[in-house]
């Protein structure tokens, strides 16, 4: 699961040339980068919700493969060598819709999660920037706003992740989202839906940092004037997502173990009850797979994250451009 960069604002670009046209260009870039000052909070929520839903659903089949590839002791019938091979085998042996199991709960979670993320981010970014750097763009404000927004985003998405990943596992005993929710709540308690929350946050902090730094670095070279440039947003988003995904795969493997409570793997170590805590997850992964175990599914994670972040960035940047153009036209 990609989370959007914690510093969407960016700094205003220098005007392309002297004279009145340059001033107009500067105003357009500034307004595009920060979104129109008069834009309602609902605007950010709608843009974020659409970006989040598209990001998570379009590449969902690959996410299903990633979850299975991260299994520490997979069933012999669920051992895959490649993403394509896994998808082909899943469709042939388990049915055409198998790779999409759980997509509905992901859509239900991604919409409000990303809407809250952007609403919180935009509100806090503006308030903190006025304190740290009045009239300018504060990277410190962006970082704090993004971190707090991630807390809200993950609070909404974590239960959806638990249900989704249990439905994605091979031979899952759950046949529906509602049935899975009821069973998990009855057998493991409400806490089961947030067992991987701290791991998720621990993963998202470095993910966001690496993602943001890489994206901004590439934008400086591909799109130095920070204008609306779909190609640069897609390329920079894809590369940033791939780098961040590969670097944080060990934490994602631990998160998957905490979410799925892989029975065969835990039983082999005589672990009774439910596994909890990031330290226990790290220890269990190492005992079962050694250092290579932390990078199970890295190929699927990167293949999933590249187009996901490219889609998310391009959709969000399009909304920023579209809304700023509408404001300029009215003026």
Automatic annotation (TrEMBL):
Gene3D superfamilies: Mitochondrial carrier domain (1.50.40.10). Its main location: mitochondrion. The keyword Transport applies. It comes from the Eukaryota. Solcar repeats lie at residues 39-127, 137-221, 228-322. Residues 1-22 are annotated as: Disordered. Keywords: Ion transport, Iron, Iron transport, Membrane, Mitochondrion, Mitochondrion inner membrane, Repeat, Transmembrane, Transmembrane helix, Transport. GO terms for molecular function: ferrous iron transmembrane transporter activity. GO terms for biological process: iron import into the mitochondrion. It catalyses: Fe(2+)(in) = Fe(2+)(out). GO terms for cellular component: mitochondrial inner membrane. It is found in: Mitochondrion inner membrane. It is a multi-pass membrane protein. Mitochondrial iron transporter that specifically mediates iron uptake in developing erythroid cells, thereby playing an essential role in heme biosynthesis. PANTHER family: MITOFERRIN-1, MITOFERRIN-1-RELATED. Belongs to the mitochondrial carrier (TC 2.A.29) family. This is Mitoferrin-1. It comes from Bombycilla garrulus (Bohemian waxwing).
